[in-house]
Amino acid sequence: MALWGGRFASETRDEVAKYTESISFDRRLFKHDIDGSRAHVAMLAAQGIIPKASADAIRDELLKIRERIEKGDFEYTISLEDIHMHIESALIGKLGNEGARVHSGRSRNDQVALDLRLYLREECDFIVSGIRDFQKALVDKAAAEPDAIMPGFTHLQHAQVILFAHHLLAYVEMLQRDAERLADCRKRIDIMPLGSGALAGSTLPLDREFVRRELGFSRLTRNSLDGVADRDFAIEFLAALAIFAMHVSRLSEDMILWCSQEFSFVELDDAFCTGSSLMPQKKNPDVCELSRGKTARIYGDLTALLTLCKGLPLAYNRDLQEDKVAIFDAVDTAKAILSVYPAMIGTMTIRRDRMAAAAADPALMATDLAEKLVELGVPFRDAHRRVGSFVKFCREKGKALDEVTLDEMRQTIPEATPEFLTLFDPVASVRKRRLVGGTGFEPVANEIEFWQKELKNV
To answer: How many CB atoms lie within 10 A of CB 406?
Structure first.
């Protein structure tokens, strides 16, 4: 008979047991369930609800159960439904009625809410640490290539010259926002729900503050209905992971393009690529491609959790058992990404010659001509039109922008001086972009130094 089966006249059918079990996936919560139970029984003893000797025996046996699970010496059965029932059943099996005291003043509803918050608090910290390693890898690669020049793109068309390091540091900024979002989300994870009971609290004199302190939570939930029904913290966590994955996908797309023969800006180490089953010459950036796919997977997890919660009346409903499937998958996927990318970035080879050749196109400095006219007092829209006419003139003559004479340039840009003919140097173009946040050598060097200091102790 199940631990909850007192009012039932018949056993659960096998197919129903298989349909309703969650032990196949929620067993990973065993550490958090044991931590919560040990804090709970310590409180029960301190409040005189159960004898101290019973609490001590339960706490000791819980540690032994944890050790058995970690060693793989623990039997699971779908008849016990979930990890909570497995641990409680194991306690009762060893301690008899003394073990049965563990659930006093507690429901599986607030128990699972506690376990999930303990789990996500831990995983949130782990993922933020992984993001920091990712940032460090990007900053290290930027520092190793501080003066490599490449074309920047808009609409996937050559736009203006930029530093390769500047491009990498853009992703450092994105990852910083990801870390900040997760750190902020953690504040709403870090709320202790135990004591909410099934939905209405308890008539027993529980000391919720005691448990909060034992488990290191920052505060208590303030409404028992919300305490067991709330999954906002998990939805917010998955939303942060989805944005993180989107950033990874964008970087992956850049790297896929850079690895192509048309670009050849970078080469990934063989350890992070695969070959073709048919074409022996192929070297495919499959890690990057899979990351685009895994991003879609995390989006699906977020959508699943939002959809799961959208029509639920208060308080707890069994639908919420399915939340862990989406949560665990998103966590595992994000951690898998973070296990690969820092090393892949660190071993990536930069093809400076290919980048420089692509950045040498004088058309990338067309905006420099327009801004030089602005310096001379020409309104920008007029300057833009004149330089556009100059580009058209060069195309019609079959000449590159830096192949014309001063007289030819003056046919469309009357204000042109000999200095205008020197504005097609990509290095000089980068050097002049000294604004904070710009792609100039000095501001990018400052950004590298900033991030090296910022990430040194995190």
So the answer is: 12
Catalytic residue, candidates 155, 196, 384, 429: 155
Parse the chain into domains and list their residue ranges. 5-104, 109-204+221-357, 362-424
- Helix, strand, coil share (%) of the chain residues, nearest 5: 70, 5, 25
Q: How far is CA 382 from the centre of its chain?
A: 45
From the list 24, 129, 276, 389, the catalytic residue is 276
Is residue 40 part of the annotated active site? The answer reads no
What integer pLDDT is reported at residue 1 of this predicted model?
52
Q: What is the pLDDT of residue 171?
A: 98
The tens digit of pLDDT for each residue in 401-437 reads 999 999 999 999 999 999 999 999 999 999 999 999 9
Peptide bond connecting 315 to the previous residue in cis, omega within 30 degrees of 0 = yes
Q: What are phi and psi of 278, to 5 degrees?
A: -115, -45
CB 449 within 8 A of CB 171: no
Instruction: Judge whether 276 counts as a catalytic residue.
Output: yes
Name the superfamily (CATH) of residues 362-424.
Answer: Fumarase/aspartase (C-terminal domain) (1.10.40.30)
Task: Determine the Cα–Cα distance for residues 158 and 408; give it in Å rounded to an integer.
Answer: 25
Q: Per residue in 308-333, pLDDT tens?
A: 999 999 999 999 999 999 999 999 99
Q: Give the sign of the dihedral formed by CA 145, CA 146, CA 150, CA 152.
A: positive
Q: In the structure encoding, which two tokens stand for residue 56, read together? A: 């001590």
Low-confidence ranges of the chain (pLDDT < 70): 1-10
What pLDDT shows up at residue 6?
A: 58
The domain defined by 109-204+221-357 folds into: Fumarase C; Chain A, domain 2 (1.20.200)
Give the pLDDT of residue 8. 55
